[in-house]
Amino acid sequence: MTVALRTENLGKVYRVGFFMRRVEALKGLNLEVKPGEAFGFVGPNGAGKTTAIKILMGLHRQTSGSAYLFGESVDNVNARRRVGYLPERPYFYVHLSAREVLHFYGQLFEMDPAVRTERIEMLLERVQLTRFADVTLSKYSKGMLQRVGLCQSLLHDPDLIVLDEPMSGLDPVGRALVRDLILEQRDNGKTVFFSSHILSDVEAICDRVAILVGGELRESGSISEVVRDRESLEAVLVGEMTKTVDESKLGVL
Ligand SMILES: Nc1ncnc2c1ncn2[C@@H]1O[C@H](COP(=O)(O)OP(=O)(O)O)[C@@H](O)[C@H]1O
Ligand SMILES: [Mg+2]
Question: All domains of the chain, ordered by start, with CATH?
Answer without folding.
Answer: 5-82+158-252 (3.40.50.300)
